[in-house]
Design goal:
- By secondary structure, the chain is α/β, with parallel strands linked by helices.
- The chain has a single domain (about 5-210, about 260-300), classed as NADP-dependent oxidoreductase domain (TIM Barrel).
- Helices cover about 40% and strands about 10% of the residues.
- The chain has 13 helices and ten strands.
- Strand 6 (about 115-120), helix 4 (about 125-140) and strand 7 (about 145-150) form a beta-alpha-beta unit.
- Helix 4 packs across helix 5.
- It is globular.
- The relative contact order is 0.12.
């Protein structure tokens, strides 16, 4: 396992981050512990969580598992989505964040959270208010590094600009969706992160299971996240995506590499990525993702895999100039 700097923080994190969304949900406490221990065994020191995962159970299980290694691991959590059945039970207001940070700290059984994400953009709360609230949490010692997930590049840059102008703690980590079929992050978020030295830990490197080798244009499993979960079905239920998945699986098979390992390795190879977030329901599912670090991703292989899907157009939409560069 290699380690990379987490943006400008000086903290070194494993090149894979383990996402704990399955803890207390599709993985019981025993299996959660087994996967956590396996990750620690191979050198992973980075674990992603959220206040809403499994109704708070994920944080509670992770909190129990880190008790004998708290000083060795970097953990994250998130706030935004509705956690209470009242009008102010969600969002990025100071009111909601103040309540949720205390609940997360209690469930995680820790005095501080290393990386704390605003889980989505809140159009009702001004960005300057969000930045100041996160800065207050840093000053109170409850979080170390503010972070943003599912924000657009302009929103992120506005947050960074406000922090710099007001001498507040800056956003240091981003968590966008990124995989072979969802490449929008390449247009502005990843280049911006490289330019600003912000860490990026993308989620869904397997496309909700689409890139695991189980899906083709004509073959769909009876069970799976895309089949069982309406949100994932909407996100990935596009015919073109299944075509890409089929071609990718054929490519992986030709190379003699598990599609899961190759999908994670492709995401991990982007220079703007710090650590892809991997996840699993059990040890059998976990192993191929862990094997991603053993793949020698040559520039040729990276280009061949990239060519299997659609490169998003540049931010200024001047595609003709991009095409001309390739000649």
């Amino acid at each position: 396992m290699k380690y990379r700097l987490l943006g400008r923080t000086g903290v070194q994190v494993s090149e894979l981050c383990f996402g704990t969304m399955s803890f207390g949900d599709t993985a019981d406490e025993k299996m959660s512990a087994a996967m956590f221990n396996r990750c620690r065994e191979v050198g992973i020191n980075f674990f992603d969580c959220a206040n809403g995962y499994a109704g708070g159970k994920s944080e509670k299980i992770l909190g129990e598992l880190i008790q004998d290694c708290r000083d060795e691991v970097i953990i994250t959590s998130k706030v935004f989505f509705k956690q209470a059945d009242h009008v102010n039970g969600g969002g990025s207001s100071r009111f909601h964040i103040r309540q949720q940070i205390e609940s997360s700290l209690k469930r995680l059984n820790t005095d501080y959270i290393d990386v704390y994400f605003i889980h989505n953009f809140d159009p009702l709360t001004p960005i300057d208010s969000v930045v100041r609230t996160l800065d207050d949490l840093v000053r109170q010692g409850k979080i170390l590094y503010p972070a943003l997930s599912n924000w657009a590049a302009w929103q992120i840059m506005k947050a960074i600009g406000i922090a710099e102008a007001e001498k507040l703690t800056r956003v240091e980590v981003l968590q966008p969706m990124y995989n072979l079929v969802k490449r929008q992050a390449e247009v502005e978020i990843l280049p911006m992160a490289e330019a600003e030295q912000v860490a990026v830990i993308p989620y869904s490197p397997l496309g909700g299971g689409l890139l695991t080798g189980k899906y083709t244009k004509s073959k769909r499993p009876d069970v799976g996240r895309i089949v069982d979960n309406k949100m994932y079905g909407t996100r990935y239920g596009v015919d073109r995506y299944f075509e890409i998945a089929e071609n990718f699986t054929e490519y992986a098979n030709e190379k003699g590499i598990h599609p899961v390992s190759l999908a994670v390795a492709w995401v991990n190879n982007h220079p703007g990525v710090t650590a892809p977030i991997i996840g699993a329901r059990n040890l059998e599912q976990l192993e191929p993702s862990l094997d991603a670090v053993n793949i020698d991703m040559t520039p040729e292989m990276y280009a061949e895999i990239s060519a299997l899907s659609d490169t998003p157009p540049p931010a200024n939409d001047r595609l003709e100039e991009q095409l001309r560069k390739g000649k």
